[in-house]
Each structure stands twice: as structure tokens, then as C-alpha cells.
Amino acid sequence: MPLSRPRAAVLAAALLAAISMPTMAAPDPFGRALEPLLQAEFALQAGRLDEAAKGYLEAAEAAGDPVLSERATRIALLAKDEERAARALELWREQGGEGVDVLAAEATLAMRRGQDRAARRHLLRLMATPDGWRQTLGVLGAGARDPEQAAELLEYLIDRDAIPTQLQAWLAFGGLAQRVDAPELAERIVAEVVERFPGEPRVALLRASQLREAGDKDKALEALAAIDAQAEHDADLRLSLASEYDALGELGRSERTLARGPQDDQTYALRASLLARAEDNDALKALYGELARDAVRPDPQRRLLLGQVAEFLELHDEALEWYRGVPGGPQRWLAQLRATNVLHELGRADEAYAALGDIQDDAEAPETVRRDAYLLEASLREKDGQPEAEMDAFARALAAFPDEPEVLYARALTYERRDDIPRAEADFRRILVAEPDSVAALNALGYTLADRTDRYQEALELINRARAAAPDNAAIIDSYGWVLYRLGRNEEALTELRRAYALQKDAEIAAHVGEVLWVMGRRDEARRYFDEAREIDPDNRALKRALEKTGA
């Protein structure tokens, strides 16, 4: 498990205390380790991963501490400094490091160096450990140089019969094959799973998912139909089946699947959401009637749900009545906020803003509710085309909740949308003054600088700080790939952006992949990603900018 930054800071403090004790001299190794460790921490705080890797390695060499050696290994891998990663890993082993974490690091380093024979050896050893397949899954998903390498190594493990006879493991590796765009390998895994686990309904779910990714919707539906009856008395399977129907765009089938079992407020809410998205108002009205008949007792959750369904149906007067009838509990505050939105939809904007003002001034309201009342007001002001009033709502929110990160973040995004990058940057930096390790603010500011300015090196350092905290986050990997592209490092950028897209099918990431491919002259591939982005979100801002830039 990675050493957290707070733990590294604690270690630095311990070393400092050791050399500051007046009654005894500090052990020489710890004294020598302190300076490079502190330098490494400061470098990491600044997003300079190459300097951090250097400092951690020097500290690990001086202290002889396996915790520092592990940290040095991980930071060097993150910095793509293979030479230092190898030296740190050797130290880690010499100092007693062993087990799945070391094997995972060895496999990752071998993959990064293109030493596939060594990577295979390490992965086989990792797979042989108890539950080692989970670590292997992470290594292949996040440590490979590119999706092709991950697919080749996964196929090698299957050839060597290294995957344990556990359905969960096979399903997970099947999902990985799909994410790295290896349809033939995914097909092979499905065939293996069918043979090894006959009659298991989750195999059909994997098969349907694979067919969906391949664009064969009809066969995917056939696979789901084969397990439809089995879902009758299995709540978990019913939920999974409904989720797959949803992914296929079969919202009605998804809702009908959920309707077959015992119902509770969560199930009703899911069904209502599906019907609303399907714009099936007749079915939604029927569900609304079913819920209303059972709402005689003043149940807060049920009345809140009824208000939300009435909103979906644009029955605003009824929605307002339900919301005002929520008797108490935490639901009451959410109902009050929703009621102001309904008032706005009814054209009673003055009442809506007055109600929001009452919530903002209510000392009994939870702070998060009062804060959200300001945020909702800003959103409604924007909808009403009142930019000055929108900014005033943010200002009053910050007067009531100084340096509140959620408010600063929302205002920064508003500034960015208005092309006021200096003010957006100022708000992101205000968050970082109070919360230096805010991954969201680091990533948002880094991406903004990469996307909207030419301060690419500064953007890279901010994004690197976010990467150090959350190396497997798809949004952060996308930001990293995008700043590499802006720096002209197109091949590296494409690798990172494709890895991000494998983790999360997102329109903005797809647009980024498409733009990089287009610039590299691979225009047929680029059009495929642009088409996928359109299917996910045709109104995505990054997609529109990419299409305008490329003329695709």
C-alpha cells in the first residue's frame, strides 16, 4: 500500500526531532536523510516529480529505511524515472521489502522498460500469491506503457493458466480486456468463463457487456434475455441486469426489470429516474400514482421522492405541495431547497429567491444546506441571465463561509466559462492556500492553465501534485495527457489519454484522444473517438472546440 504524504511528513518530523534532542546525538543515518527528505517533500508539494524522486532516493539510501525505499520507488515510477526506480526498488528489497507490493513494483518497472520477459516472470509470481490477481489487475491497468502491452501480458497469463478458478477474477480480467480495447481477448475470456462456470448468470452479463462494447446490441440483448428468469428471485442480479439494460440504452427494460422484485424508496427512485430519462411520462405517471397511494403516513423520504417525481412530470404545483409536506429529518432541508427550484420553474422567481434568502439566514439550518442555498441561487441567477446577481450570490456565500472550497470551486468554473482565466486561477489558488493537497483544485487549476494558457510547465507541476495523490484517477490522467499534448509530447500524451479513456468513457477524454490522433495524422482513428464523444455528450465543450479546431 502506498505511503501517504502525511506519513512521509510524519517521518520527516520524527527525523527532525531526532537530531534536535539536546541530550543525545542523532543517529548519523537519520541526520543524513533529513535534508534530502525535506527537499523531496517540498519538490513533491511543488509538483516537481523528478526532484522528488531524486530526494527520496537519497533519503532512502541514507536512512536504510524500507518505508522510504518504498516511497522512493513509487515516486520514481510516477516520475517515469526508471533508473532511480530500479535503484530504489533494489534498496527496498535489500531492506527486507517483500510480498505483493514489491512484486507489483517489479512488474511495473519491467513493463515501463519494455522488458516483457521479466514482466511476465514477476506477474506469474504475483498471481501465485493469495489474492495476487487483484494486484495484477491494478498493475496491468495502471502500470503498462500502453493498452497493447497490457493486453499481450494478460493473454500470456491466460496461456499459462495463471488466473485462479474464481469467477470474480475472470470477470475482472474480462473487464480489463474490454477497457484496453482487446475484443478478441475479451471473447476468449468469455469462452473460458462459460466453460469453467456453466450456468453462472454473471457470465451472461460479461458477454452482454462485451457485445455492447463491440457494437452488437442485438446479441447483447439475447445474452441478457437468457438470464432474465433467473433475476426473478435474485435482487443483486436484478440490479446488475437493469444496469446493463441501461448501458444498452434500453431504459424501459431496465425499469421493468427493477419493478419485478420487492420495492423500496431506492428502487422507486431508480425506476423514476429511468422513466424520466426515457421520457416515458405515461409509465412515470403510473409510478407516481402508485407512490402517492402509499403516502398517507407522513414519511419524509417518500414525500421527498414524490416531490422529485412530480418535478420530473412538470407537475410543479403538486411537487411544491409534496416538498412542503415533508415533516422533518434531513429530508426536510433538501425538500426546502427543491421547493425553491420549483417556485422558479413556476415563474415565481421573486418567491424563489426570497425562500433561498430565508434558508441562507436560518441559523437552525445545517451549514451545508445554507451553503447550497447560495450555490443554488447562483445557478438560478445564471439561468435568468443575471451575471452580476450570480456573482453577488457567490460573494455573499463567501462572506458567510470564508474561503469555502465548494463556493470557490463553483465560482472558479463560472469565471473559466466566461473566459476570465485570471479570476478562475485566483479562486483555485485560494482553495489551495487553505487545502494545499486538494486534488480537485490542483487538477482543475492545472488543466485550466494547460487548456487556456501557454503556462504549460506550471500546469504540469500542478497536475503532477494531483497525480502523486491519486495516480489512477481518470480525470487527472486526462489532464496529464492533455498537458503533455500541449507541450508537444504527442506520443506520451496519446498513451496517457487512452489510458484515461480506458478507465472512464467520457466525452471530454474521447475528444482529447481524437484531437491528438488528428494532429498526428491518424484521422480515421480520430473520427472514431469523435463519434464516440458525440454519442456520450454531443454538447460537450471540449468536443465542440476539438471539432472546430480540426474541422472533423
From TrEMBL:
TPR repeats: 405-438, 507-540
Domain of life assignment: Bacteria
Pfam families to which the protein is assigned, alphabetical: TPR_16
Cited InterPro entries: TPR-like_helical_dom_sf, TPR_rpt
Alphabetic keyword roster: Signal, TPR repeat
SUPFAM superfamilies in the cross-refs: TPR-like
Signal peptide: 1-25
PANTHER family xref list: BLL7664 PROTEIN, CELL DIVISION CYCLE 16,23,27
Protein name: Tetratricopeptide repeat protein
Organism this protein belongs to: Novilysobacter selenitireducens
Phylogenetic placement of the source organism: Bacteria, Pseudomonadati, Pseudomonadota, Gammaproteobacteria, Lysobacterales
